[in-house]
Amino acid sequence: MTSARFLVVLDADSTLIRNEVIELLADEAGRRAEVQAATEAAMRGEVDFATSLRSRVAALAGVPITAFARVRSRIEPTPGVQELTAAVHERGGVVGVVSGGFHEILDAVAPALGVDRWRANRLEMADGALSGRVDGEIVDAAAKAASLQLWAAELGVPPHATIAIGDGANDLQMMAAAGLGIAFNAKPAVRAAASLVVGPVDLAQVIPLLP
What is the pTM of this model? Predict the structure, then answer.
C-alpha cells in the first residue's frame, strides 16, 4: 500500500498482546522473577529503557532457539485486536506495531493479527542459542516515535491523522508525536500524559475513535 487515510501504531507487549514476551523467554531460563521486576521498573520509567533491556536480555543467555516455538504458542492476543485491525482496514487505514520486544516472536504474531508493518529488536544468536545480547540498534522510545513519523510520511498520512496506543513509559514519545495518543491498560504516568485513556482491556474500545 502506497497511501492511507490514517495510521494506527500500537505497542506490542501488554497492548497488541496480553503477554510480556521477554518474561516468557525468561521462563525458559528459569529467571522470570528478576526479569519481570526489571520490566516493570522500565515501563514505569524508573530506569533507562535501553540499559534495562540489555540487562534483561543478558539473563536470556543460553536459551535455545527452539524455545521460540514454545513462547509463540503461549502468546495471547489482546481481546478486540482483530476487530480493531479489521475496522482500520475497512476505513482505509494502516496498522503498525513498534515494539521494545523481538522480531523473532513478532514476525509470526503480527501478520496473524492483521498488522501491516512492524519493527522490533532482534536477539543475537550463537550455536543454536541466545547469546544474551541484542543484535543491532535498540528500539527505544525515540525509535518508536521515529517509526510512527516515518511510516506516516511513507503513507502520505498527515500527523493529525495518526493514532498511537501504548501502556508504558517508552511509548510516551510515540504518543506525543501522534495526532491522538491513547493510554491502554497503562501505567499511571502514561495515563496522565495521554490524550485519552482506555480502561477496559479490549482494543475494540478504540474503534469509535477511528477517523
Answer: 0.94
Catalytic residues, by residue number, are 11, 13
**DSSP 8-state class, residue 159:** G
Express each pLDDT in 60-97 by its tens digit: 999 999 999 999 999 999 999 999 999 999 999 999 99
Classify domain 6-209 at the CATH class level.
alpha beta
Domain range annotation of the chain: 6-209
User: What count of other Cβ atoms lies within 10 Å of the Cβ of residue 73?
Assistant: 8
| Residue of 23, 35, 80, 18 lying closest to 205 (CA atoms) | 80
3-state DSSP call for residue 97? strand
Cα 46 vs. chain centroid, distance in angstroms?
A: 19
The residues, any chain, with a CB within 8 Å of residue 61's CB and separated by 6 or more, are 29, 129, 130, 131, 132
Considering only CA atoms, which of 87, 79, 99 is closest in space to residue 198? 79
Residue ranges of the alpha helices (H) in the chain? 21-29, 32-43, 49-58, 67-73, 81-90, 103-112, 141-155, 172-177, 188-193
